[in-house]
Amino acid sequence: MNKRVKKSSSTGTSFSEVVISCVIAFISLLIGVCTAVISILAEFDAFQTVATALLSFLCSEYVVNSLLMKSKYFKARDEYNFMKNVNKWSDKIYEMNEYCNIVFEDRHGDKDLFVVTCSRSIESLHYLLKRAAVEKTIEITTDYLINATGVFEALNVASQRTIELTFPINEINGKILPTVEDEKFFETVYKMVVDDQVNRVRILLILGDSNLLNNEKLKILCRFYESNKAYECKYILKPDFIEACDHNMIQSSYLDFGIYGPKMLFRVEQYDPYKGIYSKDEEQVNRYLSLYNEVWNFESVTHTFPLSPKETAQPMTLKNFFDEMSVEESAG
Questions:
Q1: What is the pLDDT of residues 236-271, one digit of tens each?
Q2: Could you tell me the residue ranges of all domains in the chain?
Q3: Quick check: bond before 273 cis, omega within 30?
Q4: Please, how many CA atoms are within 13 Å of residue 24, restricted to the half-sphere of its CB?
Protein backbone atom coordinates (compact mmCIF):
# COMPACT_ATOMS: atom_id res chain seq x y z
CA MET A 1 0.00 0.00 0.00
CA ASN A 2 2.84 2.42 0.85
CA LYS A 3 4.52 1.80 -2.51
CA ARG A 4 1.26 2.38 -4.35
CA VAL A 5 0.59 5.64 -2.53
CA LYS A 6 4.15 6.91 -3.08
CA LYS A 7 4.10 5.93 -6.73
CA SER A 8 0.76 7.58 -7.43
CA SER A 9 1.65 10.76 -5.50
CA SER A 10 5.04 11.15 -7.22
CA THR A 11 3.68 10.74 -10.78
CA GLY A 12 3.83 14.09 -12.57
CA THR A 13 5.08 15.92 -9.45
CA SER A 14 8.25 17.36 -11.08
CA PHE A 15 6.40 18.55 -14.16
CA SER A 16 3.61 20.20 -12.15
CA GLU A 17 6.12 22.00 -9.92
CA VAL A 18 7.94 23.41 -12.98
CA VAL A 19 4.64 24.65 -14.43
CA ILE A 20 3.62 26.24 -11.12
CA SER A 21 7.01 27.97 -10.80
CA CYS A 22 6.71 29.37 -14.32
CA VAL A 23 3.18 30.62 -13.67
CA ILE A 24 4.27 32.32 -10.42
CA ALA A 25 7.23 33.96 -12.14
CA PHE A 26 5.00 35.15 -14.98
CA ILE A 27 2.42 36.63 -12.59
CA SER A 28 5.15 38.35 -10.54
CA LEU A 29 6.73 39.71 -13.73
CA LEU A 30 3.34 40.99 -14.92
CA ILE A 31 2.81 42.76 -11.58
CA GLY A 32 6.32 44.28 -11.83
CA VAL A 33 5.65 45.55 -15.37
CA CYS A 34 2.31 47.05 -14.30
CA THR A 35 4.07 48.75 -11.37
CA ALA A 36 6.73 50.14 -13.74
CA VAL A 37 4.06 51.52 -16.08
CA ILE A 38 2.26 53.19 -13.16
CA SER A 39 5.58 54.59 -11.90
CA ILE A 40 6.31 56.11 -15.35
CA LEU A 41 2.81 57.65 -15.50
CA ALA A 42 3.43 59.04 -12.02
CA GLU A 43 6.61 60.68 -13.42
CA PHE A 44 9.06 58.67 -11.24
CA ASP A 45 12.66 58.93 -12.35
CA ALA A 46 14.45 55.89 -13.85
CA PHE A 47 15.92 54.67 -10.56
CA GLN A 48 12.60 54.96 -8.70
CA THR A 49 10.75 53.18 -11.52
CA VAL A 50 13.22 50.26 -11.63
CA ALA A 51 13.37 49.98 -7.84
CA THR A 52 9.57 50.04 -7.49
CA ALA A 53 9.09 47.45 -10.25
CA LEU A 54 11.77 45.17 -8.73
CA LEU A 55 10.30 45.44 -5.24
CA SER A 56 6.81 44.68 -6.61
CA PHE A 57 8.21 41.63 -8.41
CA LEU A 58 9.99 40.35 -5.28
CA CYS A 59 7.00 41.01 -3.02
CA SER A 60 4.68 39.20 -5.43
CA GLU A 61 7.08 36.23 -5.53
CA TYR A 62 7.23 36.15 -1.73
CA VAL A 63 3.45 36.37 -1.17
CA VAL A 64 2.54 33.80 -3.81
CA ASN A 65 5.28 31.39 -2.70
CA SER A 66 4.22 31.78 0.95
CA LEU A 67 0.66 30.83 0.03
CA LEU A 68 1.98 27.92 -2.03
CA MET A 69 4.16 26.69 0.85
CA LYS A 70 1.18 26.81 3.20
CA SER A 71 -0.90 24.77 0.79
CA LYS A 72 1.97 22.27 0.48
CA TYR A 73 2.19 22.10 4.27
CA PHE A 74 -1.50 21.30 4.67
CA LYS A 75 -1.29 18.75 1.86
CA ALA A 76 1.76 17.13 3.44
CA ARG A 77 -0.02 17.06 6.80
CA ASP A 78 -3.04 15.36 5.26
CA GLU A 79 -0.78 12.84 3.53
CA TYR A 80 1.04 12.19 6.80
CA ASN A 81 -2.25 11.61 8.63
CA PHE A 82 -3.34 9.27 5.84
CA MET A 83 -0.07 7.31 5.91
CA LYS A 84 -0.21 7.15 9.71
CA ASN A 85 -3.52 5.30 9.45
CA VAL A 86 -2.32 2.80 6.88
CA ASN A 87 -2.63 -0.67 8.40
CA LYS A 88 -2.53 -4.31 7.39
CA TRP A 89 -6.01 -4.06 5.84
CA SER A 90 -5.26 -1.00 3.70
CA ASP A 91 -4.07 -3.12 0.77
CA LYS A 92 -7.35 -5.02 0.78
CA ILE A 93 -9.39 -1.80 0.96
CA TYR A 94 -7.36 -0.37 -1.94
CA GLU A 95 -7.97 -3.53 -3.98
CA MET A 96 -11.68 -3.46 -3.07
CA ASN A 97 -11.93 0.02 -4.57
CA GLU A 98 -10.28 -1.22 -7.79
CA TYR A 99 -12.56 -4.27 -7.94
CA CYS A 100 -15.63 -2.06 -7.34
CA ASN A 101 -14.66 0.12 -10.30
CA ILE A 102 -14.26 -2.95 -12.53
CA VAL A 103 -17.64 -4.37 -11.45
CA PHE A 104 -19.32 -1.00 -11.97
CA GLU A 105 -17.76 -0.52 -15.43
CA ASP A 106 -18.91 -4.02 -16.48
CA ARG A 107 -22.51 -3.46 -15.39
CA HIS A 108 -25.38 -4.26 -17.76
CA GLY A 109 -27.70 -1.72 -16.19
CA ASP A 110 -28.68 0.01 -12.94
CA LYS A 111 -29.99 -3.26 -11.46
CA ASP A 112 -27.10 -5.43 -12.62
CA LEU A 113 -26.89 -8.53 -10.40
CA PHE A 114 -23.15 -8.13 -9.76
CA VAL A 115 -23.48 -4.44 -8.86
CA VAL A 116 -26.46 -4.99 -6.53
CA THR A 117 -24.85 -7.96 -4.74
CA CYS A 118 -21.47 -6.25 -4.28
CA SER A 119 -23.01 -2.95 -3.19
CA ARG A 120 -25.02 -4.74 -0.48
CA SER A 121 -21.85 -6.43 0.80
CA ILE A 122 -20.03 -3.10 0.91
CA GLU A 123 -22.92 -1.45 2.74
CA SER A 124 -22.90 -4.31 5.26
CA LEU A 125 -19.15 -3.96 5.78
CA HIS A 126 -19.48 -0.18 6.19
CA TYR A 127 -22.27 -0.67 8.73
CA LEU A 128 -20.22 -3.27 10.62
CA LEU A 129 -17.12 -1.05 10.79
CA LYS A 130 -19.16 2.02 11.76
CA ARG A 131 -20.87 0.20 14.64
CA ALA A 132 -17.56 -1.26 15.82
CA ALA A 133 -15.80 2.13 15.70
CA VAL A 134 -18.54 4.53 16.82
CA GLU A 135 -21.01 2.46 18.84
CA LYS A 136 -18.40 -0.05 20.10
CA THR A 137 -20.66 -3.01 19.26
CA ILE A 138 -20.45 -6.07 17.04
CA GLU A 139 -23.45 -8.23 16.18
CA ILE A 140 -22.84 -11.92 15.51
CA THR A 141 -25.05 -14.63 14.07
CA THR A 142 -22.58 -17.42 14.79
CA ASP A 143 -21.81 -18.50 18.32
CA TYR A 144 -19.17 -19.68 20.75
CA LEU A 145 -17.54 -22.19 18.40
CA ILE A 146 -16.01 -19.19 16.64
CA ASN A 147 -15.90 -16.60 19.43
CA ALA A 148 -15.14 -18.70 22.53
CA THR A 149 -11.45 -17.80 22.48
CA GLY A 150 -11.52 -14.31 20.95
CA VAL A 151 -13.72 -12.77 23.64
CA PHE A 152 -11.16 -13.59 26.34
CA GLU A 153 -8.68 -11.21 24.69
CA ALA A 154 -10.56 -8.46 26.56
CA LEU A 155 -8.98 -9.73 29.78
CA ASN A 156 -5.58 -8.57 28.49
CA VAL A 157 -6.53 -5.00 29.39
CA ALA A 158 -8.01 -5.90 32.79
CA SER A 159 -6.15 -5.69 36.10
CA GLN A 160 -8.18 -8.63 37.44
CA ARG A 161 -8.84 -11.49 35.05
CA THR A 162 -12.39 -12.13 36.22
CA ILE A 163 -15.43 -13.33 34.27
CA GLU A 164 -19.03 -12.80 35.35
CA LEU A 165 -21.62 -15.01 33.65
CA THR A 166 -25.35 -15.50 33.89
CA PHE A 167 -26.83 -18.94 33.16
CA PRO A 168 -30.60 -18.80 32.59
CA ILE A 169 -32.29 -22.20 33.08
CA ASN A 170 -36.04 -22.39 32.59
CA GLU A 171 -36.27 -26.17 32.42
CA ILE A 172 -34.01 -29.22 32.12
CA ASN A 173 -35.46 -31.83 29.79
CA GLY A 174 -32.36 -33.06 28.00
CA LYS A 175 -28.80 -31.82 28.37
CA ILE A 176 -28.06 -29.04 30.82
CA LEU A 177 -25.59 -27.76 28.22
CA PRO A 178 -27.97 -28.11 25.27
CA THR A 179 -25.69 -27.32 22.32
CA VAL A 180 -22.18 -28.19 21.15
CA GLU A 181 -21.39 -24.48 21.37
CA ASP A 182 -22.35 -24.40 25.06
CA GLU A 183 -20.11 -27.39 25.75
CA LYS A 184 -17.26 -25.76 23.83
CA PHE A 185 -17.56 -22.56 25.85
CA PHE A 186 -17.79 -24.51 29.13
CA GLU A 187 -14.63 -26.42 28.22
CA THR A 188 -12.77 -23.29 27.06
CA VAL A 189 -13.43 -21.45 30.34
CA TYR A 190 -12.24 -24.44 32.38
CA LYS A 191 -9.00 -24.78 30.39
CA MET A 192 -8.28 -21.06 30.75
CA VAL A 193 -8.78 -21.38 34.51
CA VAL A 194 -6.41 -24.37 34.65
CA ASP A 195 -3.82 -22.43 32.62
CA ASP A 196 -4.15 -19.40 34.96
CA GLN A 197 -5.39 -17.22 32.12
CA VAL A 198 -8.55 -16.60 34.13
CA ASN A 199 -8.32 -16.08 37.89
CA ARG A 200 -11.96 -16.06 38.87
CA VAL A 201 -15.27 -17.10 37.34
CA ARG A 202 -18.59 -16.10 38.86
CA ILE A 203 -21.71 -17.88 37.61
CA LEU A 204 -25.19 -16.67 38.45
CA LEU A 205 -27.82 -19.34 37.72
CA ILE A 206 -31.17 -17.77 36.86
CA LEU A 207 -33.73 -20.47 37.61
CA GLY A 208 -37.21 -20.41 36.14
CA ASP A 209 -38.55 -22.53 38.99
CA SER A 210 -37.35 -23.42 42.51
CA ASN A 211 -38.16 -27.09 41.78
CA LEU A 212 -35.07 -27.15 39.56
CA LEU A 213 -32.99 -27.26 42.75
CA ASN A 214 -33.94 -30.93 43.00
CA ASN A 215 -32.68 -31.74 39.52
CA GLU A 216 -29.68 -34.12 39.56
CA LYS A 217 -28.11 -32.61 36.46
CA LEU A 218 -28.16 -29.16 38.04
CA LYS A 219 -26.63 -30.66 41.18
CA ILE A 220 -23.75 -32.15 39.15
CA LEU A 221 -23.17 -28.76 37.49
CA CYS A 222 -23.08 -26.96 40.84
CA ARG A 223 -20.78 -29.63 42.31
CA PHE A 224 -18.37 -28.94 39.47
CA TYR A 225 -18.44 -25.21 40.17
CA GLU A 226 -18.14 -25.56 43.93
CA SER A 227 -15.32 -28.12 43.84
CA ASN A 228 -13.06 -25.90 41.71
CA LYS A 229 -11.60 -22.99 43.65
CA ALA A 230 -11.59 -20.45 40.82
CA TYR A 231 -15.36 -20.84 40.38
CA GLU A 232 -18.10 -19.24 42.45
CA CYS A 233 -21.73 -20.10 41.87
CA LYS A 234 -25.00 -18.71 43.16
CA TYR A 235 -28.59 -18.92 42.02
CA ILE A 236 -31.54 -16.55 41.86
CA LEU A 237 -35.10 -17.09 40.74
CA LYS A 238 -36.01 -15.54 37.41
CA PRO A 239 -38.74 -13.14 38.69
CA ASP A 240 -36.30 -11.69 41.25
CA PHE A 241 -33.63 -11.16 38.61
CA ILE A 242 -36.11 -9.49 36.23
CA GLU A 243 -37.15 -7.14 39.03
CA ALA A 244 -33.47 -6.25 39.58
CA CYS A 245 -33.08 -5.58 35.85
CA ASP A 246 -36.07 -3.26 35.85
CA HIS A 247 -34.70 -1.46 38.90
CA ASN A 248 -31.38 -0.87 37.09
CA MET A 249 -33.11 0.07 33.81
CA ILE A 250 -31.63 -2.89 31.92
CA GLN A 251 -33.73 -4.82 29.44
CA SER A 252 -35.03 -7.91 31.19
CA SER A 253 -35.41 -9.74 27.88
CA TYR A 254 -31.61 -10.19 27.74
CA LEU A 255 -30.89 -12.39 30.76
CA ASP A 256 -28.05 -14.37 29.18
CA PHE A 257 -24.90 -12.24 29.27
CA GLY A 258 -21.21 -12.35 30.17
CA ILE A 259 -18.82 -9.67 31.41
CA TYR A 260 -15.15 -10.12 30.46
CA GLY A 261 -13.25 -7.46 32.38
CA PRO A 262 -14.11 -3.75 32.35
CA LYS A 263 -14.22 -3.40 28.56
CA MET A 264 -16.22 -6.29 27.14
CA LEU A 265 -19.84 -7.34 27.43
CA PHE A 266 -21.61 -10.08 25.53
CA ARG A 267 -25.34 -10.65 25.62
CA VAL A 268 -27.54 -13.10 23.76
CA GLU A 269 -30.50 -11.43 22.07
CA GLN A 270 -32.11 -14.55 20.61
CA TYR A 271 -31.37 -18.27 20.26
CA ASP A 272 -33.19 -19.37 17.13
CA PRO A 273 -31.69 -18.13 14.92
CA TYR A 274 -28.74 -17.31 17.14
CA LYS A 275 -27.95 -13.63 17.60
CA GLY A 276 -25.57 -12.00 20.07
CA ILE A 277 -24.05 -8.59 20.67
CA TYR A 278 -20.48 -7.83 21.78
CA SER A 279 -19.96 -4.37 23.27
CA LYS A 280 -16.83 -2.41 24.25
CA ASP A 281 -18.92 0.51 25.50
CA GLU A 282 -17.50 0.95 29.02
CA GLU A 283 -20.62 2.74 30.27
CA GLN A 284 -22.80 -0.18 29.22
CA VAL A 285 -20.31 -2.72 30.64
CA ASN A 286 -20.35 -0.86 33.97
CA ARG A 287 -24.16 -0.82 34.06
CA TYR A 288 -24.33 -4.59 33.60
CA LEU A 289 -21.52 -5.14 36.11
CA SER A 290 -23.31 -2.94 38.64
CA LEU A 291 -26.46 -5.01 38.18
CA TYR A 292 -24.48 -8.23 38.53
CA ASN A 293 -22.75 -7.13 41.75
CA GLU A 294 -25.98 -5.83 43.24
CA VAL A 295 -27.74 -9.13 42.64
CA TRP A 296 -24.71 -11.23 43.65
CA ASN A 297 -24.51 -9.53 47.07
CA PHE A 298 -28.29 -9.44 47.68
CA GLU A 299 -28.42 -12.37 50.12
CA SER A 300 -32.19 -12.39 50.58
CA VAL A 301 -32.77 -13.40 46.94
CA THR A 302 -29.40 -14.82 45.85
CA HIS A 303 -28.19 -18.09 47.40
CA THR A 304 -25.46 -20.68 47.17
CA PHE A 305 -26.55 -24.12 46.00
CA PRO A 306 -27.28 -26.47 48.95
CA LEU A 307 -24.42 -29.00 48.80
CA SER A 308 -22.84 -30.97 51.59
CA PRO A 309 -19.07 -30.64 52.34
CA LYS A 310 -18.66 -34.27 51.26
CA GLU A 311 -20.05 -33.46 47.79
CA THR A 312 -17.50 -30.71 47.21
CA ALA A 313 -14.51 -32.27 49.01
CA GLN A 314 -12.83 -33.57 45.85
CA PRO A 315 -12.26 -31.29 42.85
CA MET A 316 -14.23 -32.43 39.83
CA THR A 317 -12.28 -32.38 36.57
CA LEU A 318 -13.82 -31.63 33.21
CA LYS A 319 -13.74 -35.33 32.31
CA ASN A 320 -15.44 -36.28 35.59
CA PHE A 321 -18.14 -33.71 34.91
CA PHE A 322 -18.95 -34.93 31.40
CA ASP A 323 -18.79 -38.58 32.50
CA GLU A 324 -21.22 -38.06 35.39
CA MET A 325 -23.47 -35.89 33.26
CA SER A 326 -23.51 -38.52 30.50
CA VAL A 327 -24.56 -41.21 33.00
CA GLU A 328 -27.30 -39.00 34.40
CA GLU A 329 -28.56 -38.06 30.91
CA SER A 330 -28.66 -41.71 29.91
CA ALA A 331 -30.60 -42.60 33.05
CA GLY A 332 -33.02 -39.70 32.54
A1: 999 999 999 999 999 888 899 999 988 899 998 887
A2: 2-84, 138-331
A3: yes
A4: 18
